[in-house]
Amino acid sequence: MPNIIFIGADGASHQVAAPTGQSVMEAALGAGVSGIVAECNGAAACATCHCYFDLAYAGCSGEVGEHEDEMLDFAASERTAESRLSCQVRVVAEMEGMTVRVPSAQ
Q1: Which of 97, 71, 92 is nearest to 22 (CA)?
Q2: I want to staple 46 with a disulfide (CB 3.0 to 4.6 A). Which of 9, 40, 59, 65 is the partner?
């Protein structure tokens, strides 16, 4: 169960022991991380779980799918190279110590 560090828009950090196989969104919501809305409950249909993932872990976060890529264009906060929908990223052991920043708006 890797530890993922979520950093809120206010700079507060929240370390979460994330169960492998869950989505990063599910792990965050289960641990009470604020700032992730997830209106569609992980169906990649709303972009309200948009987060910024540490590019050093890009190899274990998987590729951005076509649908996710389209939905990221609707994110309320600026899209960057680090942008992912946290519902589309599965937790794997190699994510130990990964930092995920939560944007100021969803």
Answers
A1: 92
A2: 40
Cα torsion angle, 93, 94, 99, 104, sign: negative
Residue labelled with tokens 């700032």: 35
Rounded CA separation 47/39 (Å): 8
Place of tokens 């190699």: 94
Q: What is the pLDDT of residues 53-91, one digit of tens each?
A: 999 999 999 999 999 999 999 999 999 999 999 999 999
The enclosing H or E element of 61 equals: helix 58-61
Partners of 101 in beta bridges: 7, 52
Cα 42 to Cα 96: distance, rounded to the nearest angstrom? 22
